[in-house]
Amino acid sequence: MSAARISRVAAAIPLVPICGHAPPVRLGPSLVRLVVSLAGLAGAALLLVACAGPAGPTPAPTPFTPGTASKPRNVIIEMYDYRYLPAVVDLVPGETVNLEVINGGLETHEAVLGDMPAQLAWESGEAATLGAPPGPTPFVSPPAGFDGARIVVPSGQLVEVAWTVPPDAAAAWSGWYLGCHIPGHWAKGMVVPVRFINGADRPIAPAPVIPSILPTPSGS
Ligand SMILES: [Cu+2]
To answer: Rounded to whole angstroms, how far apart are CA atoms 158 and 171?
Structure first.
């Protein structure tokens, strides 16, 4: 390629920004000669320059703050066929939370937050629907003194519920759990423990183990 041709090619190549904060540059004839020889094609060249952004200060982590009635803490619960995320639900006794329950599964699921008597009540109450076609879950009378929460979420939907954790929840002899009692779902793995924490995000007590009173998740 002649020098004149190289010059014309260099003039035809558009300005190439090197970085977002740097002015664009035009390729010189010598660089064009190199690009053309590598590509084997005159006039078609693209130069990509990796560019790292300016190193900035790392933002400080947001401090943990228990929820209040006027400013509930968001607690996200994801449901799938047949498991929950997170694997442990952290709650502060007495705080108000905004439960964001998302069903990413193909079936309807529920989130029952409560101690073992509450879990047993719904397990037995919903057992009557075993074999029934998919649809709304039945109403089950909560046990006397029930102060937990139950959220039913159809497939692909999000349900938000504001709820205050009982101040004495951590004293429950059985521990607290998050479970689904649509027949067979607990046994397939839809149960995780609740771990009570203090206002400094430290556990008050270890999360309870999944009890053997109800069927344990398969594989556990
Ligand atoms: Cu379920």
So the answer is: 31
- Rounded to the nearest angstrom, the distance between the alpha carbon of 115 and the centre of ligand 1 is 18
Distance 204 CA to ligand 1 centre (A): 29
Tell me the domains of the chain and their CATH numbers: 3-39 (no CATH), 73-196 (2.60.40.420)
What's the pLDDT tens digit per position in 40-57? 444 443 434 344 556 788
pTM: 0.69
Indicate the residue type of 143: P
In order of 71, 109, 184, 216, 217, the CA distances from 189 in angstroms are 32, 12, 9, 7, 4
CA distance 53 to 19: 8
127 CA to centre of ligand 1 in angstroms: 13
Q: How much distance in Å is there from the Cα of 29 to the middle of ligand 1?
A: 67
CA of 183 to the centre of ligand 1 (A): 8
Ligand 1 centroid distance, CA of 11 (Å): 66
* pLDDT tens-digit series, residues 176-190: 999 999 988 999 999
| Four-residue CA torsion sign, 68, 70, 71, 73 | positive
